[in-house]
Structure to design on (410 residues):
């Protein structure tokens, strides 16, 4: 991060520009091929950046891959605010599911989560670079819906994140059942409308 | 599985008895120590069973560990039917969370899920021996609540499984936030009662 001021005389380019080259080179590889064929060598070659520079900014290949993944999907996973939380949750979850199940990027993420179970450093970077950022974006959209009077004030929004995106992760990581549009619609419908039978309120005090 | 009839003359014990010895020996180790120190050698020694027998019934150490884990937790994770689905979900999720966060068994499970991301055989055995069985038990209890008129008839019960236990797995596998009693209560409350503001039904058609 503490890149010295660029010395153009020696041909060194600005840090932000180099990072962007790495993101641009690696992102499409992750989404199209997955992470199996990636190495520091290949990233250096494809991005036109020295390995020394890569090592300075990314402590491990896992973290480099994660950082590139984050940048590769951030536009696709952005939250829309149409004013209708049900529609916006459905469309974001549909886009998220597409990335997770229709691109090789989904495999990248599940393999990183898998590796993180026995690699505390990777787990910490995963939370810092990806999951906490995604969680924050989701809570922000839900909080807006709360302000708009579409979600009840007392609702625990953080738990909603686990009951929507966490539920999708559950099926992706432990694929007893597929992630379909019917599933996404059920997640949103169940959580917004509730599953309890309203004519039996005594049991749901 | 196709153990020949026991030949007591040669000292061979019934298959079910030997399996039970393995479960009894390995279960407490998994819950108290985790899986780090386990090997076929140690299981053979602790259970008093030959390695040949172990290899015959369990194709890999991961599958043996998984099978023993299933038997070690099945009583604790049993579903109660008090007639009140909200109370029963809360108590089962509390017991499940205790196993996942307060015993070493939780680590066993998350490490097996992690390994399964790059090991298709382990993933298949995980689903066969554990997750599909747990899912079935949960759906059975939810279906009973549906019969009892506590859950609406059109509810997708499979999705509820992902929104309760899947939500807990999400926090255990990607621990941005801890699994607390407040979280469990929010999961059950959100899902049964719904999070949408009832005075704003237009947005939730």
């Amino acid at each position: 991060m503490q890149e010295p001021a660029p010395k153009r005389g020696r041909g060194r380019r600005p840090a932000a520009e180099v990072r962007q080259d790495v993101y641009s080179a690696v992102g499409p590889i992750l989404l199209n091929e997955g992470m199996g064929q990636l190495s520091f060598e290949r990233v250096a070659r494809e991005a036109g950046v020295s390995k020394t520079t890569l090592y300075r900014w990314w402590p491990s290949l896992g973290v480099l891959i994660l950082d590139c993944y984050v940048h590769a999907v951030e536009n696709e996973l952005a939250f829309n605010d149409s004013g209708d939380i049900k529609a916006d949750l459905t469309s974001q979850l549909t886009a998220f599911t597409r990335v997770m199940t229709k691109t090789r990027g989904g495999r990248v993420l599940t393999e990183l989560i898998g590796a993180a179970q026995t690699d505390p450093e990777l787990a910490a970077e995963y939370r810092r670079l990806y999951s906490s950022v995604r969680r924050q974006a989701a809570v922000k959209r839900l909080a807006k819906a709360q302000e708009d009077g579409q979600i009840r004030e007392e609702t625990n929004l953080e738990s909603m994140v686990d009951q929507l995106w966490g539920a999708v992760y559950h099926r992706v990581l432990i694929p007893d059942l597929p992630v379909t549009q019917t599933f996404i619609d059920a997640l949103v419908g169940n959580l917004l409308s509730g599953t309890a039978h309203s004519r039996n309120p005594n049991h749901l005090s």
About this structure: Confidence is low (pLDDT under 50) at residues 200-205 of chain A. Chain A has nine helices and no strands. The radius of gyration of chain A is 20 Å. Chain A touches chain B through 58 residues (CB under 8 Å).
